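ping. complex inputs:
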Amino acid sequence: MNNESFTRELVLPGDVLDAGTMKPGEGTYVDDGKIFAAMLGIKSVKSNFVNVIPLGGRYIPAPGDMIIGKVMDIGPSNWLIDIFSPYPAPLHVNEVPWRVEFGDTARYLGVGDTLLAKVLMVDETKRVQVTMKEQGLRKLQGGQIVEIAHSKVPRVIGKNGSMIQMIKTYTNCRIFIGQNGRIWMDGNMEDMAHAVQAIKMIDEGAQTLKLTERVKEFLESVYRKEE
Amino acid sequence: MARSVVSEIKRDHIHKLIADGHRVDGRAWDEFRNISIQTNVVETAEGSSRVKIGNTEVIVGVKMTVGEPFSDTPNRGVLTTNAELIPMASPNFESGPPDENSIELARVVDRGIRESQMIDLEKLCVEPGKKVWINFVDIYVLDFDGNLFDACSLGAVAAIKSAIVPASAHGLGEDYPMPITCTPISVTAVQIENSILVDPSLDEEMVAAARLTVTTDDNGDLRAMQKGLRGALTVEQIKTIIDTSRRLGSEIRKLVG
Amino acid sequence: MGGNSDMKLIDENGIRTDGRKVDELRPIKIEAGVLKNADGSAYVEVGKNKVLAAVYGPRECHPRHMQNPAKAIIQCRYNMISFSVSDRKRPGPDRRSVEISKLISEALDYVVFTENYPRTSIDVYIEVLQANAGTRCAGLTAAAVALADAGIPMRDIVPSVAVGKVNDTVVLDLNKEEDNYGQADLPIAMIPRTGEVLLMQMDGHLTKAEFDLAMEMGVKACKEIYEVQKDALRRRYAIVNGESEEEPMEEPKDEPMEEPMEEPKDEPEMTEED
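pong. complex structure:
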């Protein structure tokens, strides 16, 4: 399996990851010819790169990321969006799917509104721009929002989307996952509660093994009871 | 601050649940979250406690010293209650002197203790008009997830009950337990979309219209109340909250011991 | 330093008032991840010291004029709660706590990769719940664990301890009595692996030879504390061991995620609403 390590080894900042043959990847630093962990996380080796996959930490936007944002403030020609990150992101009127007159912004998106958006650009000092000008990007209404550590998003999705597909199949909820760790879902109240519980299980247990099975067991047990 | 804006989706979701008779965390309308009370957690205080209601956590200490009484109560000890909303406890708390929220909080806690005459202040007089015991009840919020009024009140009551008057350190004979007459318990409820919810979590507080804190004594009599927030309560709702506070107060009182 | 060396704090067998040897640490206990709201947190007990540390961030920096376009700033608040000491301390910062806050934030700044998060603030809050000498060291020890718990990128975890002198003898990790009546106090913090010293203060009176001995003791003790710090983090993130048959964790960046976002356009039911 192309040289991937299957052990789930917890590493701490300052732990030596490799002393010779490998190359430093994400979440690492090099000192004195050795590779060290630069954060708490799970050690992972892939095509001769050693990485640390974080378990927590804040979402840092990257261009192209699909995110779920919340309107924090409104200006005459833009909105300020909280993207669950240290960096708030302006959304300019030119980046929305509507024609908005100067000063008419509040009619389209109000403070507290939730939206599906995409990170357009990030400059060197992490100034961010987001856009809604792409098919499917829109204001989200109804349903429920769950927030998890952005680093757990890949686990909620699972290999080839297997995890999220399983949750959707059992709960019959519509679910969108933002790469910033915000998840929106809609369905009937009880189903949503089960989906939230499953997602929380993944968020809290992302470093544990056999997670897929445990989530499956949980969903099976709730839905077996109800039938 | 990012979290001070409540998302409309969250607000609607909470409202929808309440309309169906449910709460976000699955509790009944008159159900408290788990309460844990630890006392004597800090040796340097005369009395102390650490109280958790769900994820809300506070630490309270009582310090006592000998000082002058107020001129209008020459034979009574002095009680001072202070609350600190330290930035450790919430992303929305900031460093600095107490703001209106922490002052209201401290005063409501103080009122329950003072008006119930929980501490027998006359027994804390050393020399009338000259020397009395001064009690400082200091409350620090460590983790904030709603319902500070009840967490702080309970913390203060537990800390006071555990306090030992440090008489020997002041050359005033042997140490003795704090003179206590009763155990005031506060119970807070909020009104959201005309439903009443006891022990509101932070999410619930953020969408609440009105809040009422009712402090009762061991007989179930009312000793202090405070209505807060910008919404209104009907007299019926107030009576419901009072009845609930009396009922839950007697249960919580058992936990304090 | 009281400098009162007449007070007998070490007996003829080299045993201190609390039963420790001269180079022995007080019992130390660390727990990581003890608070819900904070991004990272830690609780530390060193002897009778009880300290809580919390980290928020990186987050938007307030006030804005403090923002650095090149890196995150570390803002530390060290505070003693009013009943942590024998005479009630008035709530709020005093000159001592402002100075300690500054030193701790400078020490932590060195280990954090602040350049990863321009314009943000990483806020470190230390609350001393019960004080018994050495609270700045216990506070820094706790803060370093809280930073790692928050997932902050950092070079290493920083342990801290004080060494001092009582009855003309160099001793490790002064307690309250030794601090009050001792002859010197030397708090240090360092990265054990590299030997880099990140915090150092001294008051009292030490000869050069005593300093050398004190540093030797301090370095050794820091290594010990470092292991306790790491153990606390490992316990917090304990991996449930079992068969490692499951799929590996998805890589965050190297390879695009299979389904980064459930695309609304793939969902036929989405169109109904619009």
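Chain A has four helices and 16 strands.
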